[in-house]
Structure formats: structure tokens, C-alpha cells
Amino acid sequence: MLSSRLQEVLDGRWAHVRKAARSELTGDEFVTVFGETIDEARERVTRQLRRLPADPGVAAGFPIEYGGQADPGGSVVAAEMLAQIDLSLMVKAGVQWGLFGGAVVALGTKYHHDRYLRDIISADLLGCFAMTETGHGSDVQQLRTTCTYDPATQTFDLHTPHDAARKDYIGNAARDGRMAVVFAQLISGGKRYGVHAWLVPIRDEDGKPLPGVTTGDDGHKAGLLGVDNGRLSFDHVSVPREMLLDRYGQVAPDGTYTSSIDNDVRRFFTMLGTLVRGRVVVGGSAANAAKSALTIAVRYGESRRQFGAPGEDREIALNDYLAHQRVLTTNLATAYALHFAQDELVTALHDVQTADGPVDEHRQRELESRAAGLKAAQTWHATRSIQAAREACGGAGYLAENRLPGLKADTDVFTTFEGDNTVLLQLVAKGLLTGYRDAFGSLDGWGRATFVADQVRSMVLERTAARSLIERLIDAVPGRDEEVALTNRGWHLALFEDREKHLLDGAVRRLRKGASLKPERQFDIFNDVQDHVLETARAHVDRIVLEAFVAGIDRTADDEVKALLSKVCDLYALSTVEANKGWYLEHGRLTPARSKAVTGMVNDLLRQLRPHMTTLVDAFAIPDEWLNAAILREEPARQDVMAAHDATL
Amino acid sequence: MLSSRLQEVLDGRWAHVRKAARSELTGDEFVTVFGETIDEARERVTRQLRRLPADPGVAAGFPIEYGGQADPGGSVVAAEMLAQIDLSLMVKAGVQWGLFGGAVVALGTKYHHDRYLRDIISADLLGCFAMTETGHGSDVQQLRTTCTYDPATQTFDLHTPHDAARKDYIGNAARDGRMAVVFAQLISGGKRYGVHAWLVPIRDEDGKPLPGVTTGDDGHKAGLLGVDNGRLSFDHVSVPREMLLDRYGQVAPDGTYTSSIDNDVRRFFTMLGTLVRGRVVVGGSAANAAKSALTIAVRYGESRRQFGAPGEDREIALNDYLAHQRVLTTNLATAYALHFAQDELVTALHDVQTADGPVDEHRQRELESRAAGLKAAQTWHATRSIQAAREACGGAGYLAENRLPGLKADTDVFTTFEGDNTVLLQLVAKGLLTGYRDAFGSLDGWGRATFVADQVRSMVLERTAARSLIERLIDAVPGRDEEVALTNRGWHLALFEDREKHLLDGAVRRLRKGASLKPERQFDIFNDVQDHVLETARAHVDRIVLEAFVAGIDRTADDEVKALLSKVCDLYALSTVEANKGWYLEHGRLTPARSKAVTGMVNDLLRQLRPHMTTLVDAFAIPDEWLNAAILREEPARQDVMAAHDATL
């Protein structure tokens, strides 16, 4: 079947991880439950977490010597698969093995690894990743929690100076966490060395908070009821010197601070950079949840016959309506494009994190930028397409038993956690503005605008997967004018690239002008062009995604699959151009006639893809048990059609 | 204070209803509760419903002789106010007094009024409005439930022929309803007379389903937990002849059918038309819920200081960011525009429903079209802006205690109930295509396409509130070219009107062409241009909304308020033009330079309105108790700012 062959292409390099999840994570213990109380949901998810297999599994990223597989790519894919079962379970696993365990691996040293990693992998030691504070979400450099070293006792004093400095929204903090990786300002000898992390016990074996630790419960949330998010405050808690996760900064018994990275800001962002996997997991999980929603909506739209065609002997399914296709098929095309982009990102992450020798700074920066941009694109795609799927199912889409409400509620936070999307796009833009050189600069929003404006150089096009292919396609375009076929791939690529370049040039010009007019108003200089800068970042991500899709199609051997993917890619490219047609017209990249022709071609592609809507969702290969939507089991609409045919009156 | 004077303008004609709600519906019994079980929520909402005052209240629309106020406008506004307290309560009240009670009033006659209205108004008799069936959401003409008259027993036999014909998503059906207005196909003497409604007891005094009635529970939903939506099936239930709500169609004891309206379809849509109030309430309630969300997000964005301005001694609030204003202030401008449009709609509804003498068919059709269009616009605005408000509050926006998750989940169904928005926009478009003449034609999607195409005449501009004002403003535009100021109101009006006209002309042309090429493929003729037709309807609604806003500003006496509203109107108009700039450029209505200038002016207006963001939400005058958001009480961010200032290190 075409859908099975398409599935093989989508399953890709970690197909074994995907297939193992589909066959092993089944049965009653992994079925999503509706209408649980918060306590029931937490209980269930903790139970499920402990039953997750280690191999292949989310813990596959840990070093082999402690029981992992040294397979960071596999661990990301395993987490993404959990997102199709239950998003609370995915987040809980991500907190435990990605954030908490990942921080111990990446920021700690052998002392910490030997003592804790096995229990972390087995989930005998559940932990928290305590970075975010109530008063400081995105500006993590400015955390207010302090951890002050005292050489007399050889301990740190961990302290929450005021309410806004309490750690907030921390997974595992409300109930299950026994330890936490706590981020705070390191102070020694009266001097501040920036944000570092400590491994701090927070509860005793009975689950009672330890002396000086106050835990709180974030309580009910929009979704993710199974994750016990909570708050942590510290009242002069004593932390042994050894519990500083000291890979990037060490404090000697006498209080002397040492680090291989002199600059505090740079050190902090290097530390953060090692934790990039979280963003990759969140983006991929959001996209996978969107696939579940689209699968439900497309299958429902296929079975649901809303009206008979007037004057004709044929039934009209919801999926036959152009407006329905405009929503579902275009979102499907985006889902496919993002799948290939995520695939490329996971591969890049895996290769960077398993490379021998010292870290390649340039590749690391590029990975971080791409992870940030794709996390934003995928989570916004999830918010949009799950909402669209819900509406496409009408009243049925509002019932919990049809799964869509849960998918919407659970994924809704993804646009603002693991980095707020807007802040992440600014990070992407900053990387572009400085030619990737200063990407790990301050996250203070708009700091050092004049510096940035001075540093700008021409855009560096980073095309990991298929640089030569892309250039060949662009070069082959026979003049960029009205004569080129609307489905010419090189023309699409050129349009995307041109938009990014032009937006970037314009942003640079406007920043320079602002800097010359009011050099002292750094915030205003950036803020005046914030919309332009964000659009630049979006255009960049659009290009990255299209190029990954093109490269993925190029790798596909099966001609029939390739032809179908190519049509889906046409739709992704042209519907993206259509969404930005105002810009293309403003800048003379499309004539009015050509712009109208793009809309006509999008509609034509929707018609061509109509027979393949179910093929495209079948290839996601999500087990019915995971979809767990009552409307897909009952099919009352089909019964109704038959009954209507039988009606004698 | 400016905000108080602005509030007076917004409160408008039914200010006394709004003020009474704000002062009376307070205290513990009306506070929103988070984390309830479904049973607790249903219990609470039913209790609250019974405690709602009658005057002013949602029941104000009933005739004075039965205890109402004959004030349909007041009843709509009262329902809208409930939407700011608790959306379940609003829906429950809407089901009881709007749909159920409203159907008894509008479709029944004195017999039914005398027997039931007092108990309905007092909420001693809770009831359902049982129209929608599992298999037929939007195509209500094609309901499968039958009600067959038997002259021998002088009773009807009410029957659900198969599963897909069960009534579904029916409020009050799962728990509280004792009677239901049931819509079914009337059959007498072997002949079908189309859909009619009966008043049918469904439960006994103990709440047990009556013989032949099967009730079901829709269970957990995304939101609106306090509304007991459920299912109803009938197994040959005997219904006395008198229980037919027989205002528009009567069955004599011998089975003879009579009606003042010969055509079945026309009769059905006349019956539906009397129930237009439900759509007006849903649209207004969605918009009011959006105001709550925007109030929370704007106040939070004002107090939250995310970053300090680099190199300067000033704090930057979230609201200072252009990207934040792009989301919140433009949504606020839309909220204002829709407020005036809703105000005009409620007035039109009130005037039509309290007019003496026979129904003015033309005004009734226009009211239905406007109610449909504004319901779609307002509910989509609510979905978008509540989502935006949630994201603008970051992680805090995901916690139930901050109210936004509840607002999002509760309102989410509004885009697809009381008429699916897409279907409603098609209804609007059909009205435009036939110059309002055939607006009550079949809802079968695309029936009689050739007929419609033949009937098309030039667009009839209906401008209820300020026809001459609008024309004067448009006529005063000094040539529609680059020279006109970007804030020229006549130019805005001309742009909106021109877009609607041109889209309509194009739709007509394409429909005629399709009809001549393939007259037998009626579905395809319409479906090929469905996106175009929907865009036409959206352009129509945009114009209606702008004109209502302009008329509302014109009525405002207070100069300072007027100036502020005018700026908000500039932003609404230009951000709408900006959102559609692709179209304006494609059609030569904007030059590229002018289009870029529009974006520049939008940003400029955002800056000008920055100091008024809180004024604009304060004028909504939503009591803190109703907003009930923990982040607005705690203000940890402010504490943090002070603490940061105090920090000595």
C-alpha cells in the first residue's frame, strides 16, 4: 500500500524506535483516560512512567556505562512517540530523563554521574529541573535565587530572597520529586559568578519537604493534569560543596572559583546549550500531537456525510469541501514539511552530541538556533492545526471522548515553555543578524543593539542537508518571471530565500539607522523593528523547513511515494507563499496576476490531493488505540447514510 | 476618569442591565470555581441558575403577562454579562430561557404559553432544545427523527429511527431537563410536512427518563463542565396532539395539516428565524469573554517587568514590546469594533421583535444575516484573542487559577454551535448573492446553484445605523489615491466597501461561468468557489463592523472619549486592511508603497495607544471578582522589581 511505503519514508533513521513504541506501548495501561481528577491523573502518569521500557526509550540518551544507549537521537524520537499516547506522560518523561537527568549528565561530573545516574534512569530517583522563577520566565540570566559559598562550612547557602524568586511551573515539584537541579546565582567571596546549577535534595523518603524547602502546587492547569507542576522556595538551605554541578565552573574548598570559560554570560549560554534536547523534544512532540489531531479530523471528515449533492446521486463528505481542504490539507502539508525538518534536526543533534573530540562551536550554535526556530514553528503549528481539527469536527470535536480537547489543552503550553516562542524567534534573528557569531549573547531582549548592528554581515546560508541540491534547483530556474511553472521547485526555493535575505537586509538597515539616530535608546532601537525582526526569523524558519522537505524528497527512492510527497511539497511551498503574498507583492516578487495564479494553483493542488487525504494520515501510522477517539469507532454517520438510502418515505 | 466616561459609551442603551449585573451578581455564590468535578460543576451551575434575578435578567425577553419584561434586548445583554461570570452559567441560562423557553414562546400558542411559561421563567421547569442530531449537525432540514400523527388516538408517534438520528449535544438533556422541545419531521396521512417542534416530557419528577425515552450523557467536554449536555432518543413515544408547537403549522384532530406558509422549506426557516436571539447571545457572549481575557493579559503585561532596558534606568513592561502590542492592542481594537456592531445588532433585534404589526420580512432577513455574520466574527475573534491572551501571559496563562484556560476551553465550542461558523458565512454570502431575496432558502450547502446565479443582482448596501454619515464620509475622500491621509475615515470605509463589492462581483461571475459550463454539477459549481464566497462574506462582515464602529463614534458626545475611540477605530480599520493587503495589492487598490505605509501607520498607532492600553480594558468595567485571576491579585512581578532595585550585590 502507498501509505505503508510512505510510512517507511517518514519513519526514517529511528524507525526501530517508532515501531517498537507502536507495538509495545499498548494495552490497558497506556490508554488515555478522560475525566480523571488531578490526583488520579498524576497517579496514573507516574505509574506509566515507571513502566516505560528503557530500550528503546527516552532514557536511551544516557551513557552506556550507566545503562543508557548513548543514543540521543533515539531518546528524542522515543519521547515524540509518547506524545501520541499521552502528553502528560511525554512531559513527565522529558522532565525526568531530559531536563533533570540531562542536566546531571551535561552539567555534572563523574561524582554526580556515579552516584545518581542509575537511579535516575530507573526512575527510582525522581527529580526536578528548577530554573524558571515566578518573576523571571524568559530572562533566565537574571534569576534571583542565590547560592552563596561559605569556606568555613564548605557548604553553599541556597536562598530564595523574595516571592518572585520562587521556582515556578517546575515539573515533579508538587508531588514526586526527591531531588532538584536548582539554578541560582553563584556567589563566592562576595563575588558573583553568574548562574550555575546544584543538585539539591528536596524531599525525604516519605515525600515530606526537607527543612528549609517549601514546596507548592501549581494546581489545575489547562491540560497536562498528569504532571505535578509546582513551586520551590529555599530558606537558607545548606548544600554540600560537592553538589555543585561543576563541569563548567568549580569552587575549591577555600572558595576559589575556576572555569574554562571566562565570560559569565558565555559560560551560562554554553551550559544552556548542552540542554538543547528539551526544545527538540517539545517541538517534535507538538508536531506529533498535531498529527494525531489531523488524523482524527481527516478520518472523521471522510466518514461524515453532511449533505447530499443537490440533484445528483452522490454523497458529499466533509472532506469534499474546498473550505475543509483549505484547512486540513494545508495543515497536513505543513505537518509533512515539519516532519522532515524535525528529522534533519534530530540527526544534527545526534551527530553533534555523539561526535568525538571537542565541541564544534559553530555546529553547536547552528543546532541551537535551528532547535529554537523549529520549536517555535512546530508548537505554533500544533496550536493552529489542533484548533482547526477540533473545529472541523464540530460538536463532536468538543467532547473529551473524541480526544481533540485533550490534545488542544495539553499542547497549549508548548508555545510558551522551554522558551517562549517570541523570545526564541528573537534568538534566531539575533543569530542571523550577527552571522551566527554572537548567538550565545545575552538574552536580555535587545541588549547591545548598536553592537549587534555594527557586527552585521551578509547572510550566511546554512544548508546542512542538501546544499548543492538546493543550489542546483535554484540555478535551474529559467529566469524568475511569469514564465516559470508554478510548481517549479527551484522557483519556490528562490522565493523563500529571497524573502529571508531581503527581510534581513531591511532589518539591518533599519537597526543601523536607529543606532545612528538614538544610540542611547537601545531598547527603542530594537523595539521599533521588533515585528520586522520576528518576520525575518519566521522567513528563515520557513526556508529551513522547505529545504529539509526538498532534501527528504530527494532521498526518497520509491517513485510513487516521491511523486506524492512532491505534490504535498508544492502545496506547502505555495500555501506559504500565498500566506505571505502581501509581502511578495509589496516587494515586486509577484505580479498581481501571478499572485492570483498562486491561489488558483493551491486550490488545484487541494483537488489533486483530495483522494490522498487519508493516505497522508494513514502514513503517520498512529495506532487506533493511541488515537482513542470515539467518533472513529462508532461511525454513526456511515450508518446514517445507509439508513437514509433505505428510507422509504 | 477617561475610562469611566468611555465605559458609559460602551454600556449604551442597556447600561442599567450591565450595571445591575455588576453590582448584584457578586459574592461567593457567583465566583468561578477551578478544578471542580463534572458533578460539582453541574450542581453549582444549576444552583446559580435558580438564583439569577428575573429583572433585569435573561428571562426579561418573555411577555409581560407571564412575568417577563418584553425586553428582548435586555435579555441578550443580561446573558452577555453572565458570560463574564461563568460561561457554563451563560449557556445554561441560554438553553433554559433562550432556546427552550424561546421556542415555546415563538413556536407555541396560548395553550402552551398559559401552561408552561411561568414555570419556565421561574426555572421550576427545566427544559431542552432538541434539534441537533448526531448524524446531522448543520443540515437541520434533513433531521431524521419522525413524529407521525395517528387520528385514531389523536396522538403523535415520536420516533428515532436509527443511532445517527439521536439528538446530541443537547443542554439540560443529561441531567436536569424535565421537558424538551423536540424537532422532527411531521408526518400525517402518510405525507411529510417538514420539520416541526413538539413539547415533550422526558423525565418524571424524580428525574427518571419516561417510558420510551432514552437519555445519554455527552460526558466530559473541553469546557462548559457545568452544562449537562446529553443525548435523547425516542422509541415510539406517544405525544398528545396539543403538544405540537403549532404557531406555524397545525394538525386537526382528523390529521388535516394547515399552515399560513405553504412552502415547507420557507416555513421551516421562518420558524428558525424566530429563534435568531440565540446566535446574537452567543456572539455577544464570546466577545464578552474575550474582553475578560484581554483585561487579564493587558493588566498582567502592565505589571510584569520582564527585562530592564539595557544601559538605561527604566523598567520595560511586557506591554512596552511592539510584538505584545501587535497582539493585544489590535485584538482590543477588534473587541471595540465588535462591541459597537453587537450593540447595533441587539438594537435591531429588539426593534424587530418589539415592533407592532406583522413581521417586516426584509428587516427580519437582514437581522438573521447580520446575526449569522457577527456570530461567526465574534466567536472567531474570541478563539483568537483568548488564545493570544493566554500566550501573552506565558506559563501563568496556563494555570487554571489565572482564569485564561477556563475562558479558552469554555468558549471553544462557540465557533461551531448555534450554527457552524463556516455554514453561517455561507448563509451570509447566499443572502448577498441573491440580494437578500432568497436568504431563507435551503441550507443544503450549495443547492440550486444555477438558480442563485441567475437571481444575482447588484449588491444592496444595507447600512442600518448611519447610512447618510457613511456616504458623506466616503464622498468626502479627496480622490482615492496616495494623497489621502492614512487615517482618513472615508478612505477606510471606501476600501472596505470596495473589497466587498469586488469580491461579490467576482463570485457572481465565477458562479455564472460554472453554471454555464457544467449546469448539472451544482455541488462542484459552488465548491470550486467556496473560498471566494467565504471571503466575500468575511469582507461583508468587516464592512458592517467598521460602519457600526463609525456610527458609534459619531454618536459619542464626549470629545476626549471620541478622540480615543477614533484612534482605536483607525487601528481596527488599518490592521484589517493590513491583514488583507495581499488582496488590495492584487487588485491595485494599494500601491506597494502605500501598503508599506499602512504597516508603518499601524505600528505608529500602537505606539500612540500604548498609554491607553489599560484605559481601554478598564472601560470594560469587569469586576475583579468576576475576572478572578490570581496573577492580578499577587503582582509578584512588581515585588520583584522593587526587590531588584534594593539588591545590593
TrEMBL record, chains A, B:
Recorded hits in InterPro entries, A to Z, give:
ACOX_C_alpha1 (IPR055060), Acyl-CoA_Oxase/DH_mid-dom (IPR006091), Acyl-CoA_Oxase/DH_mid-dom_sf (IPR046373), Acyl-CoA_oxidase (IPR012258), Acyl-CoA_oxidase_C (IPR002655), AcylCo_DH-like_C (IPR036250), AcylCoA_DH/ox_N (IPR013786), AcylCoA_DH/ox_N_sf (IPR037069)
Q: List the keywords (alphabetical).
A: FAD, Flavoprotein, Oxidoreductase
Q: Which residues form the Acyl-CoA oxidase/dehydrogenase middle domain?
A: 128-237
Q: Which SUPFAM superfamilies match?
A: Acyl-CoA dehydrogenase C-terminal domain-like, Acyl-CoA dehydrogenase NM domain-like
> Which residue ranges traverse the bilayer?
none
Q: Which residues form the Acyl-CoA oxidase C-terminal domain?
A: 495-631
Cofactor(s) of this protein = FAD
The segment(s) forming the Acyl-CoA dehydrogenase/oxidase N-terminal domain are: 38-123
Q: Which residues form the Acyl-CoA oxidase C-alpha1 domain?
A: 273-433
Among the Pfam families in the record, one is ACOX_C_alpha1
- Residues in a coiled coil are none
Output the superkingdom of the source species: Bacteria
The family annotation for this protein states: Belongs to the acyl-CoA oxidase family.
Its recorded name reads Acyl-CoA dehydrogenase family protein
Source organism (scientific name): Paractinoplanes bogorensis
